[in-house]
Design brief:
Length: 584
Amino acid sequence: MPTIDIDKQELFDYLGNQFDTASFRELCFEFGIELEEDSSEKGQLADGERAQLKIDIPANRYDLLCFEGVSRALGVFLRREDPPTYKVVPAAEPHRITVSAECAQVRPFVVGAVLRGVTLTAERYQSFIDLQDKLHHNLCKKRELVSIGTHDLDTVEGPFTYEAQRPEDIQFVPLNQTESMNGRRVIEFYEDDQHIKKFLHIIRDSPVYPVVYDAKRRVMSLPPLINSEHSKISLDTRNILIEITATDLTKVNMTLNILVTMFSKYCNEPFTVEPVEVVYPDGKKFVYPELEQRLMATTGEYLNGIVGIEKSNDEISELLKKMSLEAEVQGDKINVKLPATRPDILQECDIAEDLAIAFGYNRIPRVQNNEATVAAPHPLNKLSDIVRREIALAGWTEALTLSLCSHDNNFAHLRRKDNGDEVVVLENPKSSENQICRTLLLPGLLKTVCENKRYALPLRVFEVSDVVLKNAAVERGAQNQRHACALYASNEARFEIVQGLLDEVMKSLNVVSVVEANKGVRYCLEEADIPTYLPGRGANVMLINEDGSSLELGTIGILHPEVLGNFDLKTPVSAFEINIEPFL
C-alpha cells in the first residue's frame, strides 16, 4: 500500500480548517484511506518545521498519490467543491512526436501532453516530482513498463522525435550534471547512484537505447533513466511538455492521464490540457491525452443489493457525486460517467464500493438473514476428500505443491512438447520457476521427492489438487481441473504398487477393473507410447461408461530415466495421474 506525506496545515486550510487530527483520522477512515501518522503528535518538530501527515493510499487509487489528488477528492467528498471537468484544448499547431521503427526493439510506445501557463511554487514543484516517483514505483512497475519525462517546453523546439540509437551515438548532459556523456558513459556514471542504478538493467544490455530529440537534435531524455539538463523544469517554468515512453500502452495512458489531471489545476485555464500528436512508423497517428469519460451502465437494484441499502436512483446519483462520479438516471438504468482519474473502476461492483463509501459503511443497516440454509460440502471437494482418505489410509503421504512452475518442468523435463493450446502462461513472471500455471501435478511431486532424497526409501507421496488448462469455450479462457497424482520411489520401480493404489482409488469411487466386470462403469489400462514413461511401461487410464463409450482419465507408468535425471533423481519411480472430475 503506497504512503504519501502531505503538509498538515496546507491540507487543513484547503478543507476549511474544520478538522483536528482525531476528526481527520475519522474522515480518512470513512473515505477509504488511512492516516498512519501525524508528525506533530510526536512533539519533535524542529523550529520552522511543518507538521506532515502520513497517509496510506489503496494500491489501485493512483489519483490519490499526491496532495492535489487527496485534497480534491476529499473536497468533493465533503461537498465543498464539484468534481472538475477535464478538457483537451486543441492548439493551433499541436506538437508532434515522430516514432522511429527501431524503438520497437526497446520501448515501442510514447504519449505526450502539454500543460500551458503553469504556475509553480516550491511545494507544487515537489509534489509534481513526488507524484512521478510514486507512479514509477507502482503503476509503472519501477519504470520497466512506463517511464515519465517532463521538460520545460520553452527550452526546446518541436517537432520532436522518439528514436532508438546506438549508445555511443547519444550525447547529452544528464539532469543536474555538467559533464556531457554518451549512452555508455551514462550507464557507468550512475552505477553507484542509489536512485538511478535500480533502473540501469532495463536498457544496459540493449544494442540500442531509446532517446527523445527536439527539432535541433538536442537530447531531451534517455528513458527510462534520466532527462537532460537542457530541458530541466524549474520554478520559473510556465509550459511543461510531458513525454512518456512505455512497453504497455494501457499503463502509459493511465500514467499520462493521472499526471495531467492532477497538475492541470495550475494552468492558466484550470483543468485544460494541450494535446500532442504521435506518429508511428506505419503512418498511424494518435492524439494524446485521451480524457474522455468512460460510460458504465448499472441499476439501482444491483447497487442497493450489493451495498445493502434502499435508495432511489436519484439518491444514488447524488451519493456517487461525493466520489467524483457523475451519474444520469434513465428509467431503471443509471449511466455512470467515469473520469480519466479513475482507471481503477472496471466493473459494476467497483461502483457499488464507491456507493458504500459515499453512504458510509457505518450507516449500512444490519439485517437478520431469515433464510434457512443447510450447509453441505461442495461436491468436488467431497469427492477429493474421498480420494485423499483412501490414499492416505494406504500409507501414502500427502504433499501440497505450488500451482506455478517453470515451463521446462511442465514440458521439457517430462519429455513433453508444448502444443500451444494447453498451458496458461504468465505475462511478467517474477522468476523462471513461476512461468506458467501447471497442467500436471507430477512435476511438483518429483521436485518434492528430489528435496527429500535424504529420507529412507521407499517414498510414497500423493497430491489431490487443481491444475489449470486453457479452454477457449469459457469466458475467462481457462479452467481448473481437479487431479489426483501418486508417486512411488524406491530401489525398484514396483509398478504393481501404484497400479494397486489406483485400483483401490477406483473401488472407492465404485468403479472396478474390466478384469473384474464386463458391464457397468469400469476402467482399464490401455497401452500407449507416452514419452514421460519408459517404452512399453506406460498406459492411459480409461474410464468405460455403461453405454460402452470411453474417456481418458490420465496416465500411469514407470518414469523414463531421462525424466528422472532432469529432476536429479537416481532411483526408479512409478506414478499415475488422473482427472477425478468425471466421477462427479
